[in-house]
Design brief:
- The chain is an alpha/beta fold and 377 residues long.
- It folds into two domains: 17-236, Aspartate Aminotransferase, domain 2 (3-Layer(aba) Sandwich); 239-369, Aspartate Aminotransferase, domain 1 (Alpha-Beta Complex).
- Helix content is 37%, strand content 15%.
- It contains twelve helices and 14 strands.
- The protein has helices spanning 17-29, 40-50, 68-75, 93-100, 119-128, 180-191, 204-213, 226-236, 239-257, 288-300, 331-337, 351-369; strands spanning 33-37, 58-62, 79-83, 104-110, 133-136, 144-145, 148-149, 156-160, 173-177, 263-264, 272-273, 278-283, 306-307, 340-344.
- The strands form three sheets. It has a seven-stranded mixed beta sheet with strand order 1-9-8-5-4-2-3, with helices on both faces. A four-stranded antiparallel beta sheet has the order 10-12-14-13.
- The longest helix has 19 residues, at 239-257.
- The radius of gyration is 21 Å and the shape is globular.
Length: 377
Amino acid sequence: MLQSGDLFRYTAPENAPVALLEQEFAALLGARYALAVSSCSAALFLSLKALGLKPGARILIPAFTFAAVPSAIVHADCVPVLCEVGENYRIDLAHFRHLMDDGVEAVMISHMRGHTSDMDAILAEAEAGGIPVIEDAAHSLGTTWNGRNIGTLGRIGCFSFQSYKLVNAGEGGIMISDDADAIARAVIMSGAYEHNWKKHGMNADLEAAFARWQNQLPLYNLRLGNLSAAVIRPQLAEVARRVRDGRRNHDHTAARLNVSPWIEVPEKLAPEERAPDSIQFNLVGMNDAEVAAFQEAANQRGVKVQVFGASRDNARAFWNWQFLRDIPDLPQTRAMLMKACDVRLPARLTLAECDLIAQALVRAAQDVMGNLRAFGT
């Protein structure tokens, strides 16, 4: 590819690496269509545009997410509506139902750090109101809910290939859907100018949709390049192994952390089978000074801990999203973020290395809080 210089996805008449990636990813997830783009943020933005939402549309999101999610909504000329999140990092359903009665026109569910909210309840509420659901599955490739792949539950699912994700291309994203019209709109807006949409897999539904939207939509030029696709494609065969190893590492480490009276790893929901590459836990019974001391003690022991709300200018703390016109007071989410910790736990780690990480974290808590009780008694 480097010798040919054939890096642009539309140079080849067919079967460019990006086109093959789209076919393979859709097959892997069990979706009809996929569109590879420059980032997951681009996929989220295009999802909103593809659904034809008008400027000013209110989009419900969890308040625990990355700043890129409300940013994509603002970029699409829509308005983020933030929902409270509980201590288990998942949507507070009472607040969700309250907001759904307040003129919400779409739901964008972030499965933040791979934690799945109650999708049965969320989808039921959305369906009752005729409201589309977009899944931000940037952290959830390989996760299932009641046996179905995350990203296939809503109208559109969006994934990331950024460096810290399960499949790593440095940058990149992809969106999947069974909705031919939404995908056709997204393909054109992603930068399939003139008739380059013909180089996407075609069927009667897509062809009709492309014919409807030719020359009707703006071009945002958010395409993925062939070189990135060539890096991604061989990794798809590794997804199942990485999911298995990541889950093993997470559950092994969680069991050791939960021994400490000062650390709590929330349980997953019953229908959820996760694909984690990091671990999150809450600090129990610590004030702000003790949380800071724990973070420093862990760092001194060689384990980098990020406390979402206590790390300066953290892009996952909603009060730092100053680009929003109105930031709501969300005391439940704020309290959670001030005690919630994040530690990288890549699938490539061995169990022995996971033991070292867990031991460092447990002892860091002991450094700050002492031994409340003898473990196991």
